[in-house]
Specification:
This protein has about 140 residues and is an alpha+beta fold. The chain contains three helices and eight strands. The relative contact order is 0.20. The structure holds zinc ion.
Length: about 140
């Protein structure tokens, strides 16, 4: 079951410039910057009430964000829904015929386990499911 929109991911060319722009736009500073080397991205996060905005900048030419910007330009890259049981959701969505990009949840930014649903399965929207990693 989905709990809320956790964040909206926006692909940007220049993270520093975008941080300044979104700081003016939202009236808050990013609370975190984090590189995810395995994905070839640098990210920053802004709190916007219950949800967040994630800015993503490519750090490698062959990263998904670099390819996205090359094809479509800057803009909304994905919508992330918070779930309580990401593995259960993957099983449920696969049974319902959705194409899951990574069947095993992987570690994403901001202390989350994440998996992605192919845009072709979701009306052209790249959907991220995320679950907070609990420190036990
Ligand atoms: Zn995300």
């Amino acid at each position: 079951m989905v709990r809320r929109i956790e964040h909206i991911g926006i692909a940007v060319k220049d993270l520093e410039a975008a941080n300044e722009l979104y700081e003016s736009l939202l009236g808050v500073r990013p609370y975190k910057e984090e590189a995810v080397a395995s994905e070839g991205v640098r990210t920053s996060f802004f709190r916007t009430g219950e949800s967040k905005v994630e800015l993503l900048e490519a750090t490698k030419e062959d990263s998904a964000i670099a390819k996205f910007i090359e094809k479509r330009g800057e803009g909304i890259h994905h919508i992330a829904f918070e779930v309580e049981d990401i593995e259960g959701e993957i099983v449920r969505l696969q049974a319902a015929g959705f194409r899951i990009l990574n069947e095993k949840p992987k570690r994403g930014a901001d202390n989350k386990l994440v998996c992605f649903v192919h845009p072709r399965s979701a009306n052209g929207v790249l959907v991220e499911l995320c679950q907070e990693i609990r420190n036990t």
